[in-house]
Amino acid sequence: MSKKWHTALKGRHTIAACSVLILFFFAVAIFAPWIAPHDPVKVDLAHKLDGPSAQHWLGTDHLGRDNLSRLIYGARVSLGFAFVIFLSSLVLGILIGALSGYVGGWLDNLIMRVCEGIMAFPNLVLVLGIVGIFGPGLMQVLLALLMVQWVYYARICRNMVISLKERPFIAAARVSGSSSWQIIRRHIIPNVQRPIVVIATLEMGWAIMDISALSFLGLGIQPPNAEWGAMIHEGTSHIRSHPELMIYPGILILIVVITFNIVGEALSERYGVAKR
Amino acid sequence: MIRYVGKRMLAIVPIVFIATLVTFALIHISPVDPAEAYLTAAHIYPTPELLEQKRREFGLDRPLIEQYVDTLGRIARLDFGSSYLTNRPVWDEVKARLPATAELAVSSILFSVLVSVPLGVLAAVYRRGWVDLLTRAIAYFGASIPQFWLGYLLMFFFAVKLDLLPVEGRGDWRNLVLPTITLSFVLIALYTRMLRTAMSEQLDETYVRYARTRGLRERSVVLKHALKVAIMPLITSMGMNMGRLLTGTIIVEQVFSWPGFGRYFVEAIFNRDIPVIQCYVFLAACLFIVCNLIVDLIQMYMDPRILTEGRANT
């Protein structure tokens, strides 16, 4: 039975099913203003900490705000910002990594030393240090995560480029007069796609967790805005009377991150790429 | 062997150097003037004269190189300056909080090893059995569950609902249980799967078949022969995951109001207490570097092949 599970978790159907789920979450995030039944920041003290009702499907929080709407809007922050971080660090990492590997020499040396320097710190510690210096806020968190995350893409990209550089088809392109930039764009980037896709899926999960952890510490999104990590933090004040306030957002984080991880794992198995 | 150890020690120097550089750079990329941050944290109204005076006191008017050399000298003497908030030396404050964090970290390392070694071995021996399935489930959950949420879930079930354990704070061993489980969960998830993979590989090796043919008991084949080799990646991974453990303590200390260094660090972030932030970031990097060194040395001790690498083939 477990064999069946094992193969089922790795197969094409898993990737498809998980992708559909991820798309669903993204759709919810994008269309939040149209889906959410209530205003997520509207305070209604007369109905605070209400249980589920026809009006508030998942009840209300300590300020009478609609839980379901806050969860829906929270998806925007969690997924949206994770996506922005992923995309920007991907672009930055690929560009720097490709440049480093392609040009080589002292530039490559310098960039790789910088990468090692950044990787000498535990990820979240450096992020917290940067946020500590720039002050709390979502933009600062974004910047800090970007400053740390690009390194991983840059290193993979650089190594791929170095191993590709000597291959005949690159040499042929160079001989036929393509510029460095054209070679990077036409021949190298398409070839590094697979490992990047795998890292990216796994990285999305990490980014969502990091953002929620920082928000939980009070450093990410600032109240009254909704974000899953921040909602868990708010919910913990009512852990004795209304534990569901902190349970709902946690379940959502868990589902989203697990989905990304399963896809990442399945893809890495399919493509035969080692994870970092 | 001494040459190898020496080489590894030397390789640390540039990395520590980069760490000091990053620590130093933290202040200078900040949009906030440290003098202003100091006065705000100390609740003093910042007049231009006071700001000027503080700036001179911090040496901010001197050239960058000079400031950096000065910082290097002070770090070497473990002088991280005084906290903006309490005006006491940062190192003293940190020293008072380190034991609490160390207690948490050590108990988590022990707990994660105690759980993951038997689980990993059982999963490899009874491949596709229920233990294997369980470790797979733990692996997926461990990688995907937010640590703070897990902490609150455990707190809710065991402290609030069942009232078995204290909710928060530091005290006797009962206070240690929930934070330790929370902190180790992600490590257990990782180590178990890792050991399972390494064990499965080793059990298929010829030396294991040979040991079995010699008529050794299965138990000693698994535990003495295969485990000895399979545990190597685990040790490496323990060193590499020091960072995860460290960031874990920040979160877990926050959840369980554990009076450690991580909590102090988060407070410092809110107060813009720059010396404390610098100190934490630098020490974290050092810990990371030292752990990697220790892992390398352990590996060298357990696997002498590393020393002869390259030489054996020539």
From TrEMBL, chain B:
UniProt family annotation: Belongs to the binding-protein-dependent transport system permease family. OppBC subfamily.
Task: Give the primary localization class.
Answer: membrane
Q: How does it sit in the membrane?
A: Multi-pass membrane protein
The regions listed as transmembrane in this protein's record are 9-29, 104-126, 138-161, 173-192, 274-295
This chain belongs to the protein called Nickel import system permease protein NikB
**Pfam families, A to Z:** BPD_transp_1, BPD_transp_1_N
Q: How does it assemble?
A: The complex is composed of two ATP-binding proteins (NikD and NikE), two transmembrane proteins (NikB and NikC) and a solute-binding protein (NikA).
Organism of origin is: Saccharibacillus alkalitolerans
